[in-house]
Write a structure and sequence with these properties.
424 residues, alpha/beta, Alkaline Phosphatase, subunit A, 10-stranded mixed beta sheet, 3-stranded mixed beta sheet, 13 helices, globular
């Protein structure tokens, strides 16, 4: 029996290594931080730089040493949604649009969806602490994929319940409404008060970032819900906390674990602003995401901490159009128009969108995601493994391996094999 188990584990390791390609070098990092700019494409990143200081301005994300591109398609669509995109980033598996860390039933022999092992599971099993930060509701698609398993991303009340049995040590974000019954101002269809259930188990529930600063360690899980729904847009001056503040507190607490930690950081409202063609809101969210990246670089040891930046997809087909001197596309001036270079040529907005309810080519109630490849950037131990083109599934696999970990659940491995077969 022991001999068979050793063979089985060897085959799993061999399979996963093949998934990563021959160029992968296993480098063990103590910590890993995954930044996800939801809806962030290259144009969103560039517009954030112009808004922050113009063409000559340097962003913190420019310190990433290695870069690449991620192919974001889902198992059932050439354009992914955030749920399938985040499932790939959390579990290393392609799934259908709407899935929260569940397999695609069409890829299962019995046609039934199965729960997937996630980076959070792997980190916790190795004694590391796990943190999830987002500017959206923590029950929203991207953060949910790192601790919950549901068939439909819209089942946010069910996702909230799974916090009770989760292996996460720290949550910071919005979304109180799905933890409270309607009689308490929430949106739960039942009478359960998940926040009371959390505290009855000895966990800590907070409603502001200031109180979080009072805690010196994570001897109890902390659920910090800063808003009823999403955290406010930073540009409007109504944000309950900046993403930068959240990250600083998370790194402070998670770093207390001598075994290290895994932290997900989602700049989720980049996507929301893009969906409604609100370019200044989007660019302000990009600047805040970049500030958080800068704080991580300052607060962590680059010899111990792998930092990865990517996106689940691009939203709305953002374009930054020419032409003109640097001065007209610096700061808020980027919201203006280009210079006409010919007598018959009209000026055009510097920023335009392909789809959406605002100044877009094709009007839609909410802008569509696009299928374009999105950036990957990495710094720290094993960062060289994140250069080149790869499927979004490989990001999770490579983060795990750089922590000295492997996805070993049969559900994950079956879907990995299925995807490999489709590529042949």
């Amino acid at each position: 029996m022991r001999y068979k188990m050793m063979i089985s584990l060897g085959l799993i390791s061999l399979f996963t290594s093949c998934q990563l390609g021959r160029s992968h070098k296993a480098v063990v990092a103590k910590n890993a931080i995954l930044f996800v700019g939801d809806g962030m494409g290259i144009a969103q990143m560039t517009s954030g730089r112009l808004y922050a200081g113009g063409s000559f301005h340097q962003m913190n994300y420019e310190q990433f040493k290695y870069t690449g591109f991620s192919k974001t398609y889902s198992s059932d669509n050439y354009t992914t949604d955030s749920a399938a995109g985040a499932t790939a980033l959390a579990a290393g598996v392609k799934s259908y649009n709407g899935a929260i860390s569940m397999t695609d039933p069409k890829w299962e022999s019995d046609h039934k969806s199965k729960k997937l092992q996630t980076l959070s599971d792997l980190a916790k099993s190795s004694g590391k602490s796990v943190g999830i930060i987002t500017t959206t509701r923590i029950t929203h698609a991207t953060p949910a994929c790192f601790y919950a398993h549901v068939l439909n991303r819209n089942s946010e009340s069910e996702i909230a319940e799974q916090v009770l049995k989760s292996n996460v040590d720290l949550w910071i974000g919005g979304g109180r409404e799905f933890f409270l019954p309607k009689k308490r101002g929430g949106k739960r269809p039942d009478e359960r008060n998940i926040l009371d259930e959390m505290t009855s188990k000895g966990n800590v529930v907070l409603d502001n970032i200031k109180d979080l600063k009072k805690y010196g360690n994570l001897d109890k899980p902390i659920l910090a819900l800063l808003a009823d729904s999403h955290v406010g847009y930073y540009q409007e001056g109504k944000a309950e906390s900046s993403l930068d503040q959240m990250v600083k507190e998370a790194v402070r607490l998670l770093s207390k674990n001598p075994n290290g930690f895994f932290l997900l950081v989602e700049g989720g409202r980049v996507d929301h602003a893009s969906h409604i063609n609100q370019e200044e809101k989007m660019m302000a969210e990009m600047v805040e995401l970049d500030k958080a990246i800068g704080s991580v670089f300052r607060l962590t040891d680059s010899d111990e901490t792998l930092v990865v930046l990517t996106a689940d997809h691009e939203t709305a087909g953002l374009a930054i159009n020419g032409y003109g001197p640097h001065s007209i596309a610096k700061g808020k001036r980027i919201l203006g128009k280009t210079i006409a270079r010919h007598p018959k040529e009209k000026t055009r907005p510097i920023i335009t969108w392909s789809t959406g309810p605002g100044r877009s080519l094709y009007e839609m109630h909410s802008a569509a995601h696009t299928a374009v490849d999105v950036p990957i950037a990495a710094k720290g131990p094993g960062a060289e493994n994140f250069s080149g083109w790869m499927d979004n599934t490989e990001i999770a696999i490579r983060i795990a391996r750089n922590l000295g970990l492997e996805f070993v659940e049969s559900t994950n491995l079956r879907s990995m094999r299925y995807l490999n077969n489709l590529k042949k």
